[in-house]
Amino acid sequence: MASWPQNPRLINTRIPRLDGMAKASGRAKYPSDIQPEGMLYGVMLYSPHANATITSIDTKAAEKMPGVKAVVVITEAGKKVQYQGDDIAAVAAETEEQARDAARAIKVEYQILPHVVTEAQSMAAGAPEIVKGGNTRKARAITRGKPDEAMKTADVTIEATYALPVITHVCLETHGLTAKWEGQDKLVAWASTQSVRTVAGELAQSFEIPTANVTVLTEVMGGGFGSKFGADIWGKTAAQLSQKAGGRPVRMFLDRVHEHLAAGNRPSATGHVQLGATKDGKLVAMIAETHGTGGLQGGSQFPLPYIYDVPNSTRTHADVFVNGGRLRAMRAPGHPQGCAIMEAAMDDLADKLGIDPLEFRLKNLPSGQTPDLKPVYEAEVKMGAELIGWKENRKPRGQNGKGPIKRGLGMALHTWAGRGVDGNQVSCTINPDGSVELKSATQDIGTGARTVLAIIAAEVLGLQPTDIYSNIGNSTFPPGQGSGGSTTTPSMSPPTYQAAIKARDALFAKLAPGLKVAPDDLSLADGKLLVKGEVKMSWKDACRKLGMMPISVIGEFDQSLASSGVGGCQFADVSVDTETGVVKLNKIVAIQDTGQVIDKLTWESQVYGGIIGGLNYGLFEERVMDPTTGVMLNPDMELYKLAGASDIPEIIVRCYEPDDQKRRGVIGVGEPPTVSTAAAIANAVTNAIGVRVAEWPMSPRNVLNALASKSQNQREA
Amino acid sequence: MTEHDPKSQGGPSGPSRRDFLRGSGLAAATAVFTAQATTAIEEAQAAEAGPAVLSGEVKLTLQVNGEARTCTVEPRSTLLDTLRNRLDITGPKRVCDRASCGACTTIIDGAPVYSCTTLAVSCQGKTIETVEGFDTGESGIPHAFHQNDGLMCGYCTPGFVTACKAYLDKNKGKEPTLEEIKQGLDGNICRCGTYIGVFQAALAAAKAMKGA
Fold first, then answer.
1. What pTM value is reported for the model?
2. String of b and e for A469-483 (b: at least 16 CB within 10 Å)?
3. Which of A22, A40, A85, A401 could bridge A28 with an S-S bond, Cβ 3.0-4.6 Å?
């Protein structure tokens, strides 16, 4: 069984990313920046209607427009477009302006059909049926124990409905790629993707050419969050336009509106929940009916019950179909929804029980699971509670002073897998000039993958990370992991480590005879070769002895160097203006375990980033659909709210990493810290104002609605 | 405008939305719709009786990062698209394309401007600075972003670095507080959530500039 170094020199220190300067100085070339010689600009034409049949489509005028080199129809006459943003046709022209004009000049006639764009609209009596068999698809109940009977035995129960909206990924670099044919059967694509290999495979399949003839390049990319795994219709269309234009490269990246409409979203979630406990605070039963929408297909499922040990539970989920863009995986798919609903119910029940919600949570942690996260949660909650000042600052719900500004605290727990995946490889080449190159067909989604690989190789070879050429983002390299599910670092670290060790040992085997020592007598440190602990020569001089032939080896994945399953907890401190409904974040505390950390600097960035993503979900984000016209009302970055600099509170991040955690091996961290932020914020808001805000985001509208319902209830009572 | 922007309320004299719009010079640009452009439009219209084609061409020289760069644009071409598509200056990024996110920020005559809503033809004779022209040495802003990990995917980063440069240049010799830095960078949006690193970078850069 392999293990990570006990006393590493570089691993788990703070190392700036290798491509940080290229990015910060504007020199890094993103796929949307690449401009191969002779490149044309592609523009998509998409449906302005939520539901319509195309009765005719005429591209003749467009084809004759200045600069136009190719036009492709995607949805022919007679076919349907089923949401605003559904693809119809595409154009490639000499300039982007010309391509836009030409796309506009395509004449499309529609027979407009009735639509449903919100869940309420879709589920209403007499709603038009947009999917054969009905607008709702209910899954079978998942039941544990005897929830109905058990619920009757509970001393205290709550019953409430919680709801989270659809949000979109808002990748800053929109989806797309630049495609270039080389001859009839070779394709190069500069793609903004989380998986160069998936894009290569899909393009090869579409054009019926060998995958070996497709090269997908992603040196850097501008955000994906789970939505950028495939070539997509847009990438395939770019390649098709290129083909039609005689092989001239075509750049096709979506505009911002289209990106919101069609490039993925996190499905909504609504849960009608009954939760019961004994009077000393042990959960007894949960009965939950949930639904969500991710467009015209299923997949809105999310985990519930979440985290806590509920001995008796039943849960029924329904996918609700709407004329909207298709859901895609989004940073910790399902977990933020399940976490928000579960943690809101937990807080509401703790309040009714009159128990500190922190103690209530600790009482109901699951035990005896693999990995056993109970002690991890206990330790993390203790750390977090101290940092937020839970004991000193937290008041029971609604007892937060008489003035209009109320301050409150809230918390939530989360979990995620973040495993390493077998089959991934990294090659390591030591050249006679001393340069070291790693290669793998993985890519950096922004987590610092390139740097992680270099740190590990440098650790083994006694070099600095900047000495390592970490070459990723090329689909023709040895198989590398797609960047999803927090799997990149745990999947790529073990093969990198193994490759570096194999390369080092091969180097020692070559050098030892000449030095008249055993390979075991050799070691590497500080850019030097050591014999029996004494400096013998520089790394470069040692490599020069390789003569003409470099060392090149392949490292394989090794499960004993990676692991899966993390906990984590977050606390929020908020102030709520009960007159305006405005929520101000004062502080967020996050405690996160992820096994062996490779780069503490980029690890922290990911945790901060996860929290800020969750903060957006908690406070700002919401796809707003207009039931009447069927269109999205905020497909931009102004009315689709995202946090700016002034919205960022003090954020305290701590890594929970005692030695037994480090020994678990590497686990991914991209997703876990984004799961519980929105839940913790909602609980803090509720604690502050004394009434549950049951609809996310915690916008002034939703906060004021909650306050209004409270005063109405009081009047009625 | 400013009074409707909650982010700018009571803020210091950082780049306000009004300044951006003023810098965008949408009004001034109409004056540069030259005769040649009009002729080209008419020709195109005559050639194609179909939809109106606004694809006249204007030869343009822009002063970018100290170099005179000449290209052909349309009167409607934005500065951002001109930099990226015609001049291969791809530091400024196209993200929201309507003056909300700041990824396209460039510095024109010393003031930060959203280049996605600035017409290229309105920038003749002005000094245009993009992130590519900044000092990459140890006292430069890109270095501070690199060292403090003020970036993840990095797509918003050129905009943040540029906004930071404009803010610190305007407040030379001062050491801004965290709150002032936040106000100064409030015209930019990051989706990866890298703000904490950005703040640290901006504070470090301010210190380095003061020391320099």
1. 0.93
2. bbbbbbbbbbbbbbb
3. A22
